[in-house]
Amino acid sequence: MAEKYLPYGRQIVDEEDIRAVADVLRSDWLTTGPMVERFEETVCRYVGAPYGVAVSSGTAALHAAMFALGVAPGDEVIVPAMTFAATANCVVYQGAKPVFADVDPATLLLEPDTVEALITPRTKAVIGVDYAGQPCDWEALRQVADRHGLALVADSCHALGATLRGRRVGSLADITCFSFHPVKHITTGEGGMAVTADGALARRMRLFRNHGISTSAAQREKAGEWFYEMTELGCNYRLTDIQCALGMSQMRKLETWLARRRELAALYGSLLASSREEPAARPLDIKPGVESAWHLYVIRHPQRDAVFRTMRARGIGVNVHYVPVHLHPYYREHWGTGPGLCPAAEAAYAEILTLPLWPGMEDRDVTHVVSLLRGNNIL
Description:
By secondary structure, this protein is α/β, with parallel strands linked by helices. 39% of the residues lie in helices and 15% in strands. The protein has 2 domains: 15-251, Aspartate Aminotransferase, domain 2; 254-374, Aspartate Aminotransferase, domain 1, CATH 3.90.1150.10. Helix 6 links the parallel strand 5 and strand 6 (151-155).
């Protein structure tokens, strides 16, 4: 085993972050307080969305989006097969049916033509996923959604800071969902946010994150009142002021970290392309007009399983993102899905490998990873 283990992703927490959290711990409000709104405003200002709803995870953001859009039993929501299970699970939480769409084998992104072919009278919404940090073709998906009167949701948990033709992810769909898990671009420990330009949708998501109760504790405290009503069946999906303080501090470093992710991704691309032989390790394509946020650096390799074992044995924390959701036992048992439903996603799953990529890495880490892939002792 190598002396240094290099994970595929990792948080960076500095003294500024620790001080920000400590300040909240000394304050009157540990949750439902003023830091939540400040964090929401900061993220909204950055992504270009008028309203933000901070919640306890990216999964909670997706669930809140489905609730706000009125997804219910009898409805269908189209989701890509190549994603984390939460993208489909949020549909099931509302009693609706996830309909799995295949992906572009070059990018693993949802294809608008594939979406249109799956639309039925029961289709209520489409969820696109900005896989690995690269935005979907949101303009084409918007046209499909508008033609059929559907809501469009962006699962952008990989893509905080990404742009499509100069527009930031967060302003391209009816609701956009972000994650602040430790391996993401910023972290609140666990956490997420849904952003939207629709005030009514924002109000419904705020209601949903707080048990369906019409007012928050902070609002009642300010008004000097105690009375509240539960008007909907909601969840406790609140994000604490402690976590929001960490998120606020992390947001100050986001642009620096994004720049470093892009530098590391460019180095990977250059080294992988420089082989004299036809490379076995093939990065995914990046479409024109896109600036990826590079949450993941994913390659395809025909001997993926053997490479995975070898790299792990050498201290390189490669990973696989993801098992196509329709192949998970739950979906096979309860929804009758299985192999053959989404062949491009299934073929990709047999080959995809995630290489380490996070802002604390050094150039020599990338060089070492690629040298092991190539079998060259260049260090």
